[in-house]
Write a structure and sequence with these properties.
Largest sheet of chain B: none
Oligomer: heterodimer
Strand content of chain B: under 5%
Radius of gyration of chain A: 18 Å
Number of domains of chain B: 3
CATH architecture of the largest domain in chain B: Orthogonal Bundle
CATH superfamily of the largest domain in chain B: MetI-like
CATH class of the largest domain in chain B: Mainly Alpha
Chain lengths: 268, 329
């Protein structure tokens, strides 16, 4: 395991810090909700390269969801800048939030419509995307006829329909059972490889972060700062199947968890 | 459902190559274009694993008990009706009440036959239904855009909210005296009272429907790039449909009630002959059987409209969204 704790300043492998190749470039970002309210995010600088899979982990109150919302453009930063050169980012939430009055395919088609895809292309494209998440057979089913994992995959297909370079995911698997979540990890990594998207994945599950990410970014709580970063990808370059049960994942997860606990203790 | 898993597994080898597509290119690609290295045996493993889990977890949509539902929703109410009529007849036979105060079921049926053969009952039903339906449609046409406006413009909502709630509580029959003074004994009086009864209900139903749209839906809309208009027409309106339908249903009930009240009070002039008029005339003639015929007709029309118009729409809406409906259990 050659995971290196890099600290906030060191640019990870192959990434020009803040350079043109960044898909998401955050500089000196600070966020507070009221003028005199507590600082939620404090001087966060983070650059995520094109095609990178980055996981943000942290305890409750570390502002990871806030950070995601700011990248998504749903909230405005108090100071600092967030640059997403490819334009808006696609977002996936913890709940699938599929529209119950539309079939799986129609849900995806709605996203295509809002993205400006011409009408004749929508249905075939939606089926293509559903096939990508292995749900081609469920295209005409309503959300309530699908299981939680299937719904979340439709939501993934819908997020991919936006055809944005950056995909933001806010604890998308947190509400699923462990077996389904494990499968969706495989699925997501496969989709990521096939589509070449840049993924920013927020989770409170350290193992999940290590299982999925090329890079794990640990945020401290109140105020949210970048506490440490780990480069995970290099340790698994050959093995396609990085499993959540594997000792390598375990080892790094333990290391990160220890770090996380130190951060939490500071809040005591 | 149980059939699906083996079928899916069987077609996997054929399709596994075609799935690897470059999603950033907005075009179909042939199998030949797909890099074969992307999808190894592991991926088809994953596919079959996933399909298996899907078929284990997906909701069992089998429902072959429709005859039971029909039995429950038709036979039971009819049985209750029979029991009530029998009890009524028993009471008349045993207690011998004055026939001009409590008619027997036979008296009422006879009176019904008389009114029917004279054509007065049909005339009353048609007149009232026409007023009720037209009044309700106008109310819906006015209330829907107004409700949408209130739902989306916060200032207007704050200003009009209490007034709308107040109007909904105010019995619309209270408008009858004013309407008579304004419009005289004309159809306009009936329509005015119907509108005052139905519009607040429909507006309130629509507002409740919009309020209950999960905030996440709007955020998803924003993230998907929906503008304000698209947000309204593609997301908020369909999401608010169940609440809106509830408002329409209540609006119809209020229309019908208000109309009956207006017809009973407002007789003479150029007012046509409606069910309320029939009711009032029967009272003046001390014809209790006629009163019963009118009451039962008003009730029957209410039930028929509910069963034939609103219930099917509601059931379809609920089923397509997977909402449990109390009435079906």
């Amino acid at each position: 395991m050659s995971a290196v704790s890099t600290g906030a300043g060191t640019p990870p492998r192959g990434h020009a810090a803040g350079g043109e190749s960044a898909a998401v470039d955050i500089r000196a970002l600070t966020k507070r909700y009221a003028a005199r309210g507590p600082v939620v995010l404090d001087d966060v600088s983070l650059s995520i390269a094109k095609g990178e899979f980055a996981c943000l982990v942290g305890a409750s109150g570390c502002g990871k969801s806030t950070l995601l919302n700011i990248i998504a453009g749903l909230e405005a930063p108090t100071s600092g800048t967030v640059d997403v050169p490819s334009g808006r980012a696609a977002v996936m939430f913890q709940e699938p939030a599929l529209f119950p009055w539309l079939s799986a395919s129609r849900n995806v088609e709605l996203a295509l419509k809002l993205a400006g895809t011409p009408k004749s292309r929508r249905r075939p494209r939606a089926l293509e995307l559903l096939d990508l998440v292995n749900l081609a057979d469920a295209a005409d089913r309503r959300p309530h006829e699908l299981s939680g994992g299937m719904r979340q995959r439709v939501a993934l297909a819908r997020a991919l329909a936006q055809d944005r370079d950056v995909l933001l995911m806010d604890e998308p698997f947190a509400a699923l059972d462990a077996i389904t979540r494990d499968l969706l990890h495989d699925e997501l990594v496969r989709v990521w490889r096939e589509t070449g998207r840049t993924i920013v994945f927020v989770t409170h599950n350290v193992r999940e972060a290590v299982r999925l990410g090329e890079r794990v970014v640990l945020l401290s709580s109140r105020p949210g700062r970048i506490a440490a970063q780990w480069q995970v990808g290099s340790a698994f370059d050959d093995a396609d199947d990085r499993r959540i049960e594997s000792p390598e994942v375990s080892r790094l997860a333990i290391e990160i968890t220890d770090h996380l606990r130190t951060e939490i203790r500071r809040a005591a | 459902m149980p059939l699906e898993a083996p079928v899916t597994t069987a077609r996997l080898p054929a399709s596994s190559g075609s799935v690897a597509r470059d999603l950033r290119k907005d075009a179909y690609r042939d199998d030949a274009d797909a890099p074969s290295s992307v999808r190894g045996p592991l991926d088809s493993d994953l596919r079959s694993l996933e399909s298996g889990l899907d078929s284990l977890q997906a909701e069992n949509t089998w429902s072959g008990r429709s005859w039971r539902r029909v039995l429950g929703s038709v036979l039971l109410p009819v049985a209750l009706l029979v029991v009530l009529v029998v009890a009524w007849q028993l009471y008349v036979t045993v207690a011998h009440p004055r026939p001009d105060i409590v008619p027997s079921p036979g008296d009422v049926v006879g009176s019904f036959g008389q009114l029917w053969s004279a054509g007065r009952l049909q005339q009353a039903v048609l007149t009232s239904l026409e007023r009720g339906v037209i009044g309700f449609l106008v109310a819906a046409a006015v209330a829907t855009p107004f409700g949408l406006l209130l739902a989306e413009v916060r200032v207007l909502r704050r200003a009009f909210g209490p007034l709308i709630t107040g109007l909904q509580v105010l019995p619309s029959v209270a408008w009858v005296p004013a309407a008579i003074l304004w419009f005289g004994l004309t159809d306009a009086t009936a329509y005015f009272v119907v509108l005052m009864g139905a519009i607040p209900s429909i507006v309130n139903g629509l507002l409740n429907g919009v309020d209950q749209v999960p905030p996440l839906f709007r955020r998803v809309g924003t993230v998907l790039g929906a503008g304000r208009m698209q947000q309204g027409t593609l997301i908020v309106l369909p999401a608010a449909l169940p609440g809106y339908l509830g408002g329409l249903k209540q609006g119809w009930a209020f229309s019908w009630r208000s109309l009956m009240a207006a017809e009973i009070i407002t007789t003479g002039g150029t007012m046509g002959f409606g069910l309320g008029t029939l009711l009032d005339q029967s009272r003046q003639l001390a014809d209790i059987s006629g009163v019963f015929v009118a009451i039962l007709s008003i009730l029957a029309i209410g039930i028929v409209v509910e069963l034939l118009v609103f219930a099917p729409i509601e059931r379809r809406l609920a089923r397509s969204r997977g909402l449990a409906r109390g009435g079906e259990r």
